[in-house]
């Protein structure tokens, strides 16, 4: 864990940046709503469509086709 940001290393945002060019739709499962919200903000910044949903205590963010 990164002690300053309290996120796993590598965090989900870094993993998504790498995988987004290779896989669509891309489903990312994260433990916290904060991580899911960060992914949503990234998608908005990059103008990529995505949706967030809570599934059994975790969160799934799905990046869809452009």
Kindly report the average pLDDT value.
85
**Sheet/helix structural class:** alpha+beta
Number of strands: 3
Distance between the first and last residues' Cα: 33 Å
- % residues in beta strands: 25-35%
User: Can you list the strand order of the major beta sheet?
Assistant: 1-3-2
Largest sheet: 3 strands, antiparallel
Q: Report the helical percentage.
A: 25-40%
| Helical run tally | 2
Q: Name the shape in a single word.
A: globular
> Secondary-structure element sequence?
HEHEE
Backbone CA Rg: 11 Å
Low-confidence stretches: none
Please, could you describe this protein's structure?
By secondary structure, this protein is an alpha+beta fold. The protein has a domain at 26-66. The protein is built from two helices and three strands, in the order αβαββ. It has helices at residues 12-19, 33-45, and strands at 26-30, 50-55, 58-63. The chain has a three-stranded antiparallel sheet with strand order 1-3-2, with helices on one face.
How are the SSEs ordered, and which strands pair?
Layout lengths: L11 H8 L6 E5 L2 H13 L4 E6 L2 E6 L3
Antiparallel strand pairs: 1-3, 2-3
């Amino acid at each position: 864990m990164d002690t300053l940001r309290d996120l796993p290393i590598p965090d989900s945002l870094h993993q998504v940046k790498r995988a987004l060019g290779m896989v669509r739709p891309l489903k990312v499962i994260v433990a916290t709503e904060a991580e899911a919200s960060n992914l949503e903000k990234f998608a908005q910044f990059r103008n990529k469509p995505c949706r967030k949903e809570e599934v059994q205590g975790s969160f799934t963010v799905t990046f869809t086709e452009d």
